[in-house]
Write a sequence for this structure.
């Protein structure tokens, strides 16, 4: 199918996908933009604009077919392509992310978790036995994952990313509290949890000042 | 000072703040939009547009005064207002966030961490002794934090948020892998780590298809 979705719509699609998936999993078959608007706290016209721009799923007086909408959004996001990922770093961040994330419905199968600390290697995280980082080269050459999730200490981020890039990894999701610079030919998604703190600070101060 | 900053600029300001702070902490006194552009991988014209919209810090041929720019961004984000926060949930997510976040330079002082599990109460996280959630009422009434960070299990999110709202907490940062709906008069920032996974899936698929 053709993609011609703007960047800001793409940024909003994951949230639509989560909400539509919740509906789907609760057995809801169709939903109006008005009801979706209420659940998501977004205007109905924003929803119509976002969802209609990639196909006319919504029908006047019927609403959206939940299953169809879900599968279309999944296709646009590439969630149906069977990508695989490895995680490097089995500390607190790695553990919480591996334990709580529904990887397969978010586009990736997690196929291996690695760490270099002897106290962590061999332990279990959601059915994955943590492997020795020293073995990641053979593993990546054999299984060819598209993506690596970095939950390593700050200091290690750059060298791990360079190792993995040399092994052919094409995309990184970086949780390491330090920004990974763009590398040529590689996709990087830096997750900065503290940016949310600052946005919240802004919203509180704005409200204190009388909500301009 | 007057705020008249658009939503999308506000969303980008935390990243500017992080980069400018790194420069400031390395002793850099001024920086051109061109050099900042290279470091941040954003066009120089985007930078000028974003930063000039709230004051003319940049001077032709001189660039930005790093210290001044940093302090102006901090003011706009409300980072200088001395807000305080409590954290509920001292599991893996709470621990990693409390350990790695520079709270005070991100707008909030973390003043207490709570959990209801006897195995965690009394343990130490970055100098904070984890307190019993049963005591949070007295603590909040006494210290009046503006914000609560929720790193509790999914099932507990809603009831904890309602407890805290009744105690007067006005803003929530929610990491709980479930969306906290807007509550009247309360600011909610839901952090969905798996949305980044889906955005990455989109980018990989887009690239596979030839980078439209």
């Amino acid at each position: 199918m053709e993609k011609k979705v703007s960047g800001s719509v793409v940024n909003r699609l994951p949230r639509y996908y989560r909400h539509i998936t919740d509906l789907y999993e609760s057995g809801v078959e169709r939903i109006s933009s008005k009801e979706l608007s209420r659940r998501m706290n977004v205007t109905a016209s924003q929803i119509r604009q976002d969802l209609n721009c990639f196909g006319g799923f919504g029908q006047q007086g019927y609403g959206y077919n939940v299953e169809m909408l879900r599968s279309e959004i999944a296709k646009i996001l590439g969630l149906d392509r069977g990508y695989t990922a490895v995680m490097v770093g089995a500390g607190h961040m790695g553990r919480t992310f591996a334990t709580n994330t529904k990887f397969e419905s978010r586009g990736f199968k997690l196929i291996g978790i690695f760490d270099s600390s002897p106290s962590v290697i061999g332990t279990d995280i959601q059915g994955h036995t943590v492997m020795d980082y020293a073995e990641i080269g053979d593993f990546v050459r054999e299984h060819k994952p598209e993506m690596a999730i970095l939950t390593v200490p700050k200091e290690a981020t750059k060298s791990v990313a360079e190792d993995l890039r040399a092994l052919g990894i094409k995309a990184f999701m970086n949780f390491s509290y330090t920004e990974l610079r763009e590398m040529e030919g590689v996709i990087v998604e830096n997750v900065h949890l503290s940016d949310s703190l600052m946005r919240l600070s802004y919203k509180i101060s704005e409200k204190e000042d009388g909500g301009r």
Chain A touches chain B through 64 residues (CB under 8 Å). The domain at 83-194 of chain A is CATH 3.40.50.720 (Rossmann fold). Strands of chain A lie at 30-31, 64-65, 83-88, 108-115, 124-125, 128-129, 131-132, 147-150, 171-174, 187-190.
